[in-house]
Design a protein that fits this description.
2 copies of one chain form a homodimer. By secondary structure, the first copy, chain A, is of the alpha/beta class. Chain A has one domain (4-225): Rossmann fold (3-Layer(aba) Sandwich), CATH 3.40.50. Chain A has helices spanning 13-24, 42-54, 100-115, 137-150, 152-155, 171-180, 205-217; strands at 4-8, 28-35, 58-63, 119-121, 161-163. A 5-stranded parallel β-sheet of chain A has the order 3-2-1-4-5, sandwiched between helices. Chain A is globular. The interface between A and B is large, with 43 and 43 residues.
Chain lengths: 226, 226
């Protein structure tokens, strides 16, 4: 029997590694990406390239405009802050998007139900991260529990499993795993605030965390070779 | 201090009663409705009329096209079944929309966070209902628990409360409560399969449950006086 999985794919380093890990585990992949009004919409193009390169059965891009809700530097007209001295500013930064992973996982859950799929992969990480609450293990577990009460399929005895294989890994370890799996990180995108050509700013939280990861892994980031 | 609440408002009998109950409890209301590709889109117009009549601080209509996901007679080209002899067919009917309440509550949660609101009202009911899993108390409790781990505001010590005041009420009791609160049910809409003018079919699950409720309450449904 074919094992199937939904994989949330943003086009970033973490979700790409998660996709490759799910693929390695012999899952047939149904990738889902979100065109949610993010300023770094460029990542969707990257997600399409990645899905094609790694190989997925289907790639769905869901259009949901989170600018209708607002409240984040990633969707609103608020400046993306620069990360100072490699350290995060106090608290959760303004790039946090209210309930984003809850919304994304809800759509993944709905699609899982339509396709009769019980496995959902998400590349959240709670070590080298921006402090977003919906990237923590405790949140993922609570979502999984809720998902198992939310759907028709679960009333029929099927179990939804939310896989978060990166949750406790350092960024450098994620990169090392991905390189072993043959990922070309040159096709991924991490920057929150790219220019019109898609070039990374090198200053936002996401860029800094990525650079730190490659440095600690002792690997050159192929993104900057192009 | 003004107490504020988000209320999920579909334009139906249950959500309208829930709105009136929240209003009675002196909450300032932020109503949220969803234009999700439902065949009974007519209900959104009704929701606007209801929000205006009962009085809300703001009414947000979120556009999210669940036809991108599919899997339901309410969003796809699948016939809405007629309820036979007042009884539900075996199991959960095809009008079930995969993970709909999970998705709707996720958006409500995001908006709650943006507005710094800790109370969310939803008119789910698990007595005279179609058997949808995401209308059960056990689901609502699990969602609440998850919500309290999902957001920035909850990491700052704030608590999200999901109110489901109708959960254990019979439809007839909901109608009696609503009438006492002065609701004109003539402006609400329940039918899953209305004609182009918005006229109810009288045969779907939702129409039958509504008719049964009014009959048991001994009240004439004003919807049919017009």
């Amino acid at each position: 029997m074919i094992k199937k999985a939904i994989v949330l794919l943003s086009g970033g380093l973490d979700s790409t590694t998660t996709l490759a890990m799910a693929k390695k585990k012999k899952f047939e992949i149904y990738a889902i990406s979100f065109d949610y009004g993010q300023r770094h919409k460029f990542e969707i193009k990257k997600a399409q390239i990645i899905a094609k390169k790694i190989g997925v059965k289907q790639h769905k891009i869901i259009k949901i405009d989170l600018r209708q809700i607002g409240g984040s530097a990633l969707t609103d007209d608020i400046n993306v802050p620069e990360r100072k001295n490699g350290k995060n500013s106090k608290g959760i930064p303004v790039t946090y998007v209210p309930a984003r992973n809850t919304i994304f996982l809800s759509f993944a859950l709905a699609w899982a139900e339509v396709l009769d799929i019980q496995n959902i992969f998400i590349g959240v990480n709670a070590i080298d991260f921006s402090g977003y609450p919906d990237c923590r293990s405790i949140f993922i577990k609570a979502f999984e529990k809720m998902a198992n009460l939310a759907t028709k399929m679960t009333t029929e005895g099927k179990k939804i499993k939310i896989h978060a294989p990166l949750i406790n890994l350092k960024k450098s370890d994620i990169i090392k795993i991905g390189c072993k799996l043959g990922i070309d990180y040159g096709i991924t995108h991490s920057c929150y605030n790219p220019d019109n050509s898609g070039k990374s700013c090198g200053k936002c939280d996401s860029c800094i965390l990525r650079a730190k990861g490659f440095k600690e892994a002792g690997i050159h980031d192929p993104l900057f070779e192009r």
